[in-house]
């Protein structure tokens, strides 16, 4: 009899094509997890192990706490499953927690919110040891202008201008209740919390906030960008390495 397990996973997304399993592309987080669990349970090709993630991170994006669930036909304990997975997974993927969940628990459908962090860096030297996890800027932006712009973007809006999928057929209305910008030395960290995010949305929001920080857009321009409902109205898509999924709420 299969049991439903909830897992919390961390990964460095640098080497991967994102979370979602892709045909003929083994280098995905979901694919690596499924491969190890298939070996662990001796699952048949007719009934393969399927890991369900709380969301999909893009190629090169990281996660400190991606939540997922999986149905497994095994008598192994939670700790034994975690230990087995960490033994056979690559060093850049870690299963931090395994707990048996209710049969109806679904990592994506039951998620109430997510926290993402985008990390920017500027300075005279180079962030040698953090280079895979930050977006290195050529000049220092005006953080106060970025905060002013963020205030216009906070709340429930139609974020179609901030969606990387031009063929999106579903609603592009989302509630982003927090955009917090913190500074520490050469680091600028932007925290986004909301009920859900569109494809590339956090990276486009970050790129647009930087436009305000560099004076290429005014903070109040965020209103007309939202109203345009056109991707071309917003700023560029910030690169993936600065983005990290921090937490999923249930």
Structure description:
The chain has 250 residues and is of the alpha+beta class. It has two domains: 3-100, Alpha-Beta Plaits; 114-249, Alpha-Beta Plaits, CATH 3.30.70.660. 22% of the residues lie in helices and 29% in strands. It contains five helices and ten strands. The protein has helices spanning 29-41, 78-88, 143-153, 201-213, 221-228, and strands at residues 3-11, 51-53, 62-72, 93-100, 113-121, 135-136, 155-158, 173-184, 187-194, 243-249. α1 (29-41) packs across α2 and α3 crosses α4 (201-213). The longest helix is centred in the N-terminal third of the chain and has 13 residues, at 29-41. The two termini are 26 Å apart. 35% of the residues are buried.
Tell me roughly what share of residues is in helical segments.
10-25%
**CATH architecture type of the largest domain:** 2-Layer Sandwich
Summarize the helix and strand pattern as letters. EHEEHEEEHEEEHHE
Mind summarizing the main beta sheet? 10 strands, mixed
* Alpha-beta classification: alpha+beta
| Rg of Cα set | 19 Å
CATH level 4 superfamily of the largest domain: Pseudouridine synthase I, catalytic domain, C-terminal subdomain
The total beta strand count reads 10
What would you call the shape?
Answer: globular
Uncertain ranges: none
What fold name goes in the CATH topology slot of the largest domain?
A: Alpha-Beta Plaits
Instruction: Output mean pLDDT.
Output: 96
Report the β-strand fraction as a percent range. 25-35%
Q: What is the number of helices?
A: 5
> End-to-end span in angstroms?
26 Å
How many structural units, i.e. domains? 2
Provide the CATH top-level class of the largest domain: Alpha Beta
